Amino acid sequence: MDFGIWFLLAAAMVFFMQAGFAMVESGFTRAKNAANIIMKNLMDFCIGTVFFVLIGFAIMCAEDYLFGFIGVPNLGIFTDFAGFDFSGFVFNLVFCATAATIVSGAMAERTKFSSYLIYSAAISAVIYPIEAGWVWNENGWLAQLGYIDFAGSSAIHMVGGISAFIGAAFLGPRLGKYSTDPKTGKKTARAIPGHSLTLGALGCFILWFGWYGFNGAAAENLSQLGSIFLTTTVAAAAAALSTMTFTWMKNGKPDVSMTLNGSLAGLVGITAGCSNVDALGALIIGAVAGVIVVAAIEFIDLKLHVDDPVGAVAVHGACGIWGTLAVGLFAKPITAGGDVISDASGLFYGGGAALLGVQALGVLSIAGWTIVTISTVFFLIKKLHGLRASAEDEITGLDFTEHGLQSSYADFLPVQTPDLQVLGGGTAAVSAVPVSAAVPVSDTSTGKKITKVTIIAKHSRFDTLRKVFDEVGITGITVTNVMGYGIQRGHTHTYRGVPLESPLIPKIQIDVVISKVPVKTLVDAVRKNLYTGNIGDGKIFVYDVENVIKVRTGEEGYDALQDAAPGDE
After folding, report:
1. CA 546 to CA 452: how far, in whole Å?
2. How does the average pLDDT of the chain come out, rounded?
């Protein structure tokens, strides 16, 4: 196998992870900000590329290093392009872009687009290249100590997670995220569900796929690559199972969005030691990461009151720290097919605490560098340019205020055809009536009572109700999708560990206007078919109608209800 080709193919897989981040972040946030998030995920890579070309790569991968701390740029990409390491540049670029894009989700829905671009430039040009050089440049001081972070649990994910936390703290929470009791001063978190778990799940699958390239890109032989694929898969699966079980036991139901985060937590956790641990180590690292991510998300939200819409700080920051330290516990000499994959030993495999100490020193050093530099960047942006969008922009949605888009989604409203009317899911031709031939508007009511009956029910009961309407002689209905809730004692909902305030439940509203059919006949038939004795069977509302006027002919009252127009009897 030509590992030079695999090296570049894996880099392309890591680039594709940008799509995964975009889907996770947009799905876990509200639809009014989806285009803004997609734009940020595109531009942090584009801006990062330019600044990594100009200075970042030269600092990170320089042959001349000052005290193992920072490379001396030689700008070979400009001065000696023919002899330049093209593959190495692309490989390091896509990893740099990952560190930058992690921050987008935590700062979503309230950050100025221009401010985010400035941050992306700073992390790609200076912050990431310097600390990554400590880890992966053979002259870096952590590399000299034997620090192990094979694919970036600390150098990429922890840096992104810490930056995300500091950025979200500088910004403050989204409007309405926390309420404060005026008497006690206690803050209470409010759940703000994302608009599409489907997009979130798609993003997680894309990221999982890309992670095989992320972790496996630097493999030097087939045995090592196979081992990395195995540990990556086992850790992600164990973490997702762990998160699902933990939230199921804690909240009474398995949490979908948390479990999606759990799979990513396992991937982050195994990234540092993917080439240095065996299957058992990967299983334990993943299972622990699955619990850490839930605890960290809830601690950050409920205790620290830092608003992270997608859980980026917990997934990348907390689990990045855990994964890096776990190498010092579970690293094991591994040989496959005669090839030595790893010769390091962790605490649990007879290596003592030496490696764990080096790992802890590296975590503290990289975290300290990130905290100081990214805090400085966000402080300067906030003071000199402004970091947060206005309250009006946030309420309206950044898709419109930052990019001039009414919505990032196509218009799904039905197109109305002038000569057709919808009747019970089908269509029927309607003959045009000239205005001159229309019946003059006058009160032709026969004095019969007109009543409107409104039925709120579950979507699943609609087909049953249509049969009821046919049986009692109803010829026209109006159906609307609605959202609502009722006070149901003992029935609580949570979103990512936070109680949902009055969750909106999808229902259908069916409106029927009748005169000839007795109200009691209709109500009794509907109630009989909706009744199960459980909460949520629905409600029936009965209203008096003063008059009905048919627009097409001008007929009123009873006569206006006699030709089966939608919503009329």
Report:
1. 10
2. 88
